[in-house]
Amino acid sequence: QVQLVESGGGLVQAGGSLSLSCKASGNVFLISTMGWYRQAPGKQRELVATFTTGGTTISADSVKGRVTIFRDDAKNTLYLEMNSLKPEDTAVYLCHASARLSIDRYLDVWGQGTLVTVSS
């Protein structure tokens, strides 16, 4: 199948920047889309930014203009650059991939997550 491993989280002051990366391995040819989600303590998991099947990107309103999602297909790696970070961006950031198993079957694959803490 597909495995995802995130890296790059850590502690940053408000207003700072942080870059995350997600390395995909295994049957990467199955991957249809990839994106970033986050989950703060006591809150539901939410979309941060993702590539669509058409190759475009979408991002949540809460982070629009502050994050950039991009990928290096040669390295099977997805990136998330975050700027002007706010304390409310504190969360575990999870890499997601949609693996296409057949014409109408997809599998959600998640990484283990990386913690981003933004101090005020």
Helix content: under 10%
Quick check: average pLDDT?
96
- What global shape is seen? elongated
Q: Regions with pLDDT < 50 over 5+ consecutive residues?
A: none
CA gyration radius, whole angstroms: 14 Å
Structural class: mainly beta
Largest sheet: 7 strands, mixed
**In total, how many beta strands?**
11
Terminal residue distance: 40 Å
Please provide the ordered H/E string of secondary-structure elements.
Answer: EEEEEEEEEEE
Q: Percent of residues in beta strands?
A: over 45%
**With helices defined by DSSP (H or I, 4 residues minimum), what is the helix count?**
0
What features would you describe in this structure?
This protein is mostly beta strands and 120 residues long. The model has no long low-confidence stretch (mean pLDDT 96). 0% of the residues lie in helices and 61% in strands. It is built from no helices and eleven strands. The strands form two sheets. Strands 2, 4, 5, 6, 9, 10 and 11 form a seven-stranded mixed beta sheet that branches. A four-stranded antiparallel beta sheet has the order 1-3-8-7, with no helix packed on it. It has strands at residues 2-7, 10-13, 18-26, 31-39, 46-51, 57-59, 67-72, 77-82, 91-102, 105-110, 114-119. Strand 7 (67-72) and strand 8 form a beta hairpin.
